[in-house]
Design a protein that fits this description.
- The complex is a heterodimer.
- By secondary structure, chain A is of the alpha+beta class.
- Chain A has eight helices and 18 strands.
- Chain A has one domain.
- In chain A, 17% of the residues lie in helices and 48% in strands.
- Chain B is built from eight helices and three strands.
- The longest helix of chain B has 18 residues.
- The interface between A and B is large, with 49 and 45 residues.
Chain lengths: 403, 120
């Protein structure tokens, strides 16, 4: 059932693309600068480059046991941009309409073992990760395969160099990171230097599941709080089995996250606006009875409120615990719930409850794990793009497993 | 497939697809543009929101009020109405801070703005 549902979601997005193509056959669509959609689109493009930047990818995907990873992501309709059709051959000629801005990202990462059997089960590995992010607001039919084509520049990012090309709502960003990962029974540390002159670090104590990580996105003469592009810390997936408890109670998580929500201020501002941050607290109970997850997030600050309330069902073995062997059978995950967004009039966004759905299908063997997911109003996506209501996302992730 | 399933698929089909702009889109964009510009220039979110509220209290959107200059069924007119948002979103910061939360000087920045939002 779950594979069918994942394929159904995947197919629905393909249908959405076909429908969009037919409805918006305008060869010369000019985005209208000055509109909220245009401003949101510009912010989405910058956020896309940060979200799927090499450092963020390395932290999230090059975790224990993974020796290499390839990801492709697409978000359809991250912002709705008013455009003017200047194509005399189009049925929309001279019409003003709202056109979706689509975001794409391609990531590649690999690790090279240096020390495998050090004291206290320690391991030292070097890693490389890269990202290519792009955006378009034209012809999805032609741009659908963009993440695949971007595998080549992602592989050769150090040769191509870290760069950003940005014109209007079109952007092309290449980023890479090199670093080292040290793991042991006592503590695990991962740190790297990015091609865009930033650093990131992640420190984890796996026994009690404590972690803290953050990204400094630019290095200059001095380091200030605004240079810390994001940070989070707390307890993540604490397995009670390690302490002799019943596995059916699931794994609790409790962590805090601080995430910037907008680009840096206009240089000409009389009194530059401080970059607003989204500060959230997250409580989760995962793998209850090996089948169920529950997630709750609370937003702190002036608009303090419930941020996310979701529940998930998955096949047993979805979360690998303790000495579990990974399950070779196909696995499924289905999550539903609501995301609560505050009104943000200055972004042209009306808040309220948004329905969330996510379906994932995973298949793996001893060497490779494949994961295909599709989602609507994903909480993590709306944290980053608060204007992206009803955006549809599709992810393809492939991991090469070492241990 | 149940009705609920069909509704779900329908929702996905609509998600993120091109759609016609609302009739009063140009008014909406002008209002957001002035609020966002004041917030950005004065580093004051409350001032930006106050400006947007003041505009709505003191003026009303005049699109399609019978004036041919505001007739959005005429495509040339429709796109021209977005000039207001463009001008306000790019207003010099010194002016934006000087104008503050009073909509009148903002609207006086461009003839289209004065046409779009006038006193009821």
């Amino acid at each position: 059932m779950i594979p069918l549902l994942a394929l159904w979601l995947w197919g629905s997005t393909a249908l959405a693309q076909a429908e969009a193509l037919a409805a918006a056959e305008c060869g010369i669509a000019r985005p209208i600068s000055g509109t909220a959609g245009f401003a949101n689109g510009r912010a989405a493009v910058r956020t896309n480059a940060t979200t799927y930047a090499a450092g963020a990818f390395a932290r999230r995907r090059l975790r224990a046991g993974v020796i290499g990873a390839i990801d492709m992501h697409a978000v359809y309709g991250a912002a709705m941009v008013p455009v003017y059709c200047d194509d005399p051959d189009s049925n929309r000629y001279q019409e003003v309409y709202l056109d979706p801005l689509d975001l794409y990202a391609t990531n590649i990462g690999l690790k090279v073992p240096i020390i495998e059997d050090g004291p206290a089960n320690s391991k030292l590995r070097l890693f490389y990760a890269s990202s290519v992010t792009t955006s378009t607001n034209w012809y999805r039919g032609l741009t659908f395969a963009v993440p695949m084509f971007n595998l080549y520049p992602a592989l050769l990012a150090p040769v191509v160099g870290s760069s950003t090309t940005n014109a209007g709502l079109g952007a092309y960003t290449v980023d890479w990171i090199g670093g080292a990962q040290f793991r042991s029974d006592v503590v695990s540390v991962q740190a790297g230097y990015t091609g865009r002159r930033g650093v990131y670090a992640d420190v984890t104590q796996e026994k009690v599941a404590l972690f803290v990580n953050g990204v400094v996105d630019r290095l200059g003469d001095g380091l200030t709080a605004s240079d810390l592009s994001y940070w989070m810390g707390g307890v993540e997936q604490l397995d009670p089995v390690r302490f002799g408890a019943n596995e059916d109670i699931g794994m609790p998580s409790l962590f805090f996250r601080s995430l910037p929500q907008r680009a840096r201020p206009d240089a000409s501002a009389v009194d530059p606006l401080e970059v607003p941050t989204l500060r959230t607290g997250h409580a989760r109970q995962e793998d209850m009875a090996r089948h169920f997850d529950a997630n709750l997030a609370w937003q702190f600050g002036a608009t303090s409120s419930l941020r996310e309330l979701t529940a998930a069902w998955h096949t047993p073995g979805w979360h690998t615990r303790g000495d579990d062997d990974p399950d070779d059978r196909g696995q499924g995950f289905l999550r539903a719930g609501v995301v609560n967004l505050p009104d943000q009039p200055l972004l042209g966004v009306k808040g309220g409850l948004q329905p969330h759905l996510r379906a994932v299908y995973r298949k793996r063997n001893d060497d490779v794990a494949l994961e295909l997911s599709a989602y609507l109003n994903d909480p993590a996506l709306l944290d980053l793009y608060p204007f992206a209501t009803n955006a549809v996302g599709v992810n393809f992730e492939m991991s090469f497993v070492l241990e | 497939m149940s009705l609920r399933d069909l509704a779900f698929v329908g929702g996905l089909l609509v998600a993120g697809c091109a759609r016609k702009a609302a009739e009063d889109q140009a008014c909406f964009e002008a209002r957001v543009a002035m609020g966002a510009r004041l917030e950005e220039c004065a580093a004051d979110t409350e001032a930006g929101l106050a400006l947007m509220d003041a505009l709505e209290d003191q003026r009303s959107c005049q699109v399609n009020n019978g004036d041919p200059r505001l007739d959005t069924s005429n495509e040339d007119v429709e796109v021209g109405l977005f000039e207001c948002a463009f001008v306000l979103r790019n207003l010099a910061c010194e002016l934006a801070v000087d104008y503050g939360a009073d909509p009148a000087p903002w609207l006086a920045s461009h003839p289209v703005c004065e046409l779009l939002w006038s006193t009821p």
